[in-house]
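== Fold encoding ==
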Amino acid sequence: MGYKFLTRQEELLLLAIWRIQDRAYGMAIKEQVEKVTCSRWSFGAVYAPLSRLLKKRLVFSIKGEPTPERGGKSKVFYELTDEGKKALLEIEKISRASWLGIPNLKSGETE
């Protein structure tokens, strides 16, 4: 089988980064995931899986320019690698296949 499954958190973060594109930094990613899940996420719930995604080479990071609003600190921006894009395509394929033929949860009828 060879495919290494993503956690749901990792999947949501990859999707958020892909949706945001070139402005994907910690706070923007957190806000996007909160918007999609309708729940609050701690910074640890964002940065721990981001760290794993970096180690898995599914994302890479780029340090931005220091800004006065951040006390001279730089934002770290995240982008998907080609492997990250492949992982999302694979999880989409698995998700679609998993739901195919499942009875409708509302009506009980097979779709």
User: Anything to note?
Assistant: The radius of gyration is 17 Å. The CA atoms of residues 60 and 68 lie 25 Å apart.
